[in-house]
Design a protein that fits this description.
75% helix; 12 helices
Length: 299
Amino acid sequence: MSTQTQAAPDLNPVFKAALWMTGAIASFTSMAVAGRAVSFELDTFEIMLYRSIAGIVIVLLISTMAGTRHQITTRSMHLHLVRNISHFTGQNLWFYAVAILPLAQVFALEFTSPLWVVLLSPLILGEKLTKARCIAALFGFVGILIVARPSPDSFDVRLLFATGAAIGFAGSAVFTKLLTRTETITCILFWLVLMQAVFGLICAGLDGAIAVPSAATWPWIALISCAGLVAHFCLTNALRIAPASVVMPFDFLRLPLIAIIGMLFYNEPLDIFVILGALVIFGANYYNILSETRSVAAK
């Protein structure tokens, strides 16, 4: 009797995407916790300075091991500059927001970033502003209003920092899309960490004093640096395996997770309006993704 060996079947693409998104969710969440931990010792510019220095080491090490350092060019420096100014602004506002606001509110407003991309793309990329994109942007704005509740009694002006972070990330995403037409990921990441290290050094030094992290703070900085890179690596792989319409619901799990962390470790109350507003924002994003998917399939 002969014995036949059957190869194990490949994992379901959705399941593999879910595994990658688990890594992304854990990384984004740990970066928020680490950002709050170091905020008591460093200001946002100093956080960005030390995070970017660690990022330079990581990018150069990985690109050397992968043999991609030769891909670093200087031919699109104007786009790198605009992209990294936008990202530096958004990231600083995000670190400031996680230090002063309930974490669930920060994450809820961060989910509006794709909707800001919808509004910026026609201006920068020349993309058409379709009916579906307008509807998505409108409902996303409604979600913002639910989260922020802009009335004299309940509006918190500090929410503008989280909203500004989402806009900064959107600008970064749009110019990243321009850069990917001619540059590799190694090139984009190198100029990201290098330019933001310079921006951080300049801004952190404006007051004439740059705080040096204590021994207890360095591990948090390392976590911030690694988590940012790992989060986007995991997210990219998830999107490579499965459609955005499948991946995005997993990303939304960041909100209840960070809300529970905020409640357990920082005594932050669970706000039903934040959850409701985030659901509306998620729905707007998901509607836009489904519309884009159907549009491509119809061509």
